[in-house]
Amino acid sequence: MNITIVTVGKLKEKYLKMGIEEYEKRLRPYAKIQLAEVPDEKAPEQLSDAEMEMVKKKEGERILSKIPADAHVIALAIEGKQRSSEELAANLESLMTYGKSKVVFVIGGSLGLHADVLKRADEKLSFSKMTFPHQLMKLVLMEQVYRAFRIMKNEPYHK
């Protein structure tokens, strides 16, 4: 399985980089992992609704340029479906079984995802109703994808 994680913004925090590198290494035996970062749109702290929409649109265009036409897209969104780790594992296993070898997870920027990206998504996944920094979500997502593969292979994992 080929898994791509598309995120907005450059990862700066060393502790997050180290965690992501660790899960990238752990995932290698299970899947080909590609991490794609698209630049975030520079914007002032206070934005009008129209300016927010423009920022999300520009970031969305960059995200969409990283998604192959034949990929199954899972967008991380607060309004998405919440799944247990076992359900995520079953979902990924089902995608593999039915020939979806390219899965792209998408994590938006600080303003979220543009409607065009959500429209392109085959499904929306929510980790919580809470808001998390998008860079931290990259680490959490990688851990859950790793856990999903461990579950699929009936290998022990920390509960």
TrEMBL record:
It catalyses: pseudouridine(1915) in 23S rRNA + S-adenosyl-L-methionine = N(3)-methylpseudouridine(1915) in 23S rRNA + S-adenosyl-L-homocysteine + H(+). It is an enzyme of class 2 (transferase). Its EC number is 2.1.1.177. Gene3D superfamilies: 3.40.1280.10. GO terms for cellular component: cytoplasm. Its main location: cytoplasm. Keywords: Cytoplasm, Methyltransferase, rRNA processing, S-adenosyl-L-methionine, Transferase. It comes from the Bacteria. It is found in: Cytoplasm. S-adenosyl-L-methionine binds at L76, G108, F127, S128, K129, M130, T131, F132. GO terms for molecular function: rRNA (pseudouridine-N3-)-methyltransferase activity. The keyword rRNA processing applies. The keyword Methyltransferase applies. InterPro entries: Alpha/beta_knot_MTases, RlmH-like, tRNA_m1G_MTases_N. Homodimer. Belongs to the RNA methyltransferase RlmH family. Specifically methylates the pseudouridine at position 1915 (m3Psi1915) in 23S rRNA. This is Ribosomal RNA large subunit methyltransferase H. It comes from Bhargavaea cecembensis DSE10.
